[in-house]
Amino acid sequence: MIDIKKLVADATQWRKGFHQHPELGFAEHQTSKQVADLLRSFGLEVHTGIGITGVVGVLRNGQGPTIGLRADMDALPIQELGAPDHKSQHKGCMHACGHDGHTAMLLGAACYLADQKTFSGTVYFVFQPAEENLGGAQKMIEDGLFERFPMDAIYGLHNWPGLPAGDIAVNDGAMMASLDTFDIIVTGKGSHAAMPHIGIDPIVAASDLVLRLQTIVSRHVSPLESAVVSITMFNSGEAINVLPESASLRGTVRCLNPQVRNQVEQLMTDYIASYNQSPGLTVALTFHRGYPVTTNHLEHAAIIHQVATNHLGEPHAHHNIQPSMASEDFAFMLEQCPGAYFWLGVDEGDSVALHNPYYDFNDKVIEVAIQFWCSLVTQQLPLR
User: Fold this and answer.
1) CATH number for the domain formed by residue range(s) 4-175+293-380
2) Which of 268, 318, 345, 367 has a CA 20 to 30 Å removed from the CA of 190?
3) Of 234, 235, 240, residue with least CA distance to 192
4) Nearest-angstrom CA–CA distance, 169 and 347
5) Does the pTM of the predicted model rise above 0.70?
6) Mean pLDDT of the chain
7) What b-and-e string marks burial along 141-180, b requiring 16 or more CB atoms within 10 Å of the CB?
8) How far apart are alpha carbons 199 and 244 in whole angstroms?
9) 30: how many CB neighbours lie within 10 A of its CB?
């Protein structure tokens, strides 16, 4: 019988190893190989190359339901500024979002369940690439994830600074916002900066547009809904004495309601159309649909809350808290399969934010997560 303390120690070392050797989305070759090798050593059936670098481990124990547990593996293009003993050895790349912890914790759960076999059915351990902006979940789905590994439900977690370490939070509906991006090109007529009257200034028009776009949320979206329209890039001009021919704006839209998402896109389109009525000025919008709203299925959110309550106690099981306007591509999986996404607290009062160059996963929650994953499996796939 496996020793849980030794397993946690092993998982902690796996986590630190992943942290030292981070890999960006769709380039997680060494990470995927290590994950696959460990799963095989636990006795699982292993499938690789799903979604380019994705891995699925299959653990069967008789007849029964089938569920999926998902962890993401990719790192971020950030130079690590902290100085842990396991600091990233890859310049300009680090695990600033805790995916190293997610991977290690799910490996720990796979090891424990393979040893104990305290369930009846099949568990699919889904190790996903490229969660950070590249849509690795969608790529795995396109590669036949749910056709090759049919699941009655799928579950995913994310570590969460701001939530007490070891606590779990889940919502009945939205957990994370949709993610869309846009590009706007404003084209006028270039001229000498000393003679603006003979040109058509795209910078003034683009500046006005920045302000008008802010009224979408403040004056057109209900205050009872949530939406964000942020201009994050404004580029124009090459010389101080020249009015440029064009200006470009780029930004992001976040929403917690699919209907609001559609409304914001339509309003942006309408605003752009009104600018194109100005003589000599053209404005072009390209709206890029990204990640959907991460929306939990009610039944499976209730299951997560029940397991958390049973496993941790009511004070540590948070239900229907404020969702985040950040985004998560697990949303694609929840569009294809029932399930739920939840947060695991890592905060002990001194946590820095995710995507911060000083971020380091809190290893103290590894044992909680392994035991939680195992409790979820044994409850959903009870021994017959």
Assistant:
1) 3.40.630.10
2) 268
3) 240
4) 13
5) yes
6) 97
7) beeebeeebebbbbbbbbbbbebebbbbbbbbebbbbbbb
8) 9
9) 14
What does the pLDDT read at residue 215? 95
Residue 29 assigned as binding residue: no
Higher per-residue pLDDT: 166 or 274: 166
> By three-state DSSP, how is residue 77 classified?
coil
| 75-87 tens-digit pLDDT | 999 999 999 999 9
| CB-based contacts of 236, cutoff 8 Å, min separation 6 | 202, 203, 206, 244, 246, 247, 248
- The CA-CA-CA angle for residues 119, 136, 262, to 5°, reads 110
Q: What letter would DSSP give residue 341? A: E
Inter-residue contact 148 to 46 (CB < 8 Å): no
CATH of 179-291, one of 1.10.3080.10, 3.30.360.10, 3.30.40.10, 3.30.70.360: 3.30.70.360
- Note the pLDDT of residue 275: 83
316 annotated ligand-binding residue = no
Digit-coded pLDDT (tens) for 293-311:
999 999 999 999 999 999 9
Residue among 46, 159, 174, 181 nearest 100 (CA): 159
Handedness of CA 105, 17, 54, 328 (dihedral sign): positive
Q: How far apart are CA 84 and CA 61, in angstroms?
A: 40
102 labelled binding-site residue: no
E-assigned strands of the chain? 45-50, 54-61, 66-72, 121-128, 153-164, 168-170, 174-176, 179-187, 191-192, 227-236, 242-243, 246-255, 282-291, 294-295, 317-319, 339-347
User: How many Cα atoms sit within 13 Å of 264 on the Cβ side?
Assistant: 32
The answer to the question of whether 99 is labelled as a binding residue is yes
- Listed by start position, the domains of the chain span 4-175+293-380, 179-291
> Any binding-site annotation on 158?
yes
Q: Which residues are CB-contacts of 177 (< 8 A; sequence separation ≥ 6)?
A: 226, 228, 254, 255, 256, 293, 294, 323, 324, 325, 326, 327
What is the model's pLDDT at position 335? Answer: 97
Structure-token pair, residue 324 = 């985040």
The encoded tokens of residue 279 equal: 């003589």
Local structure of 23: helix, strand or coil? coil
Average pLDDT over residues 108-132: 98
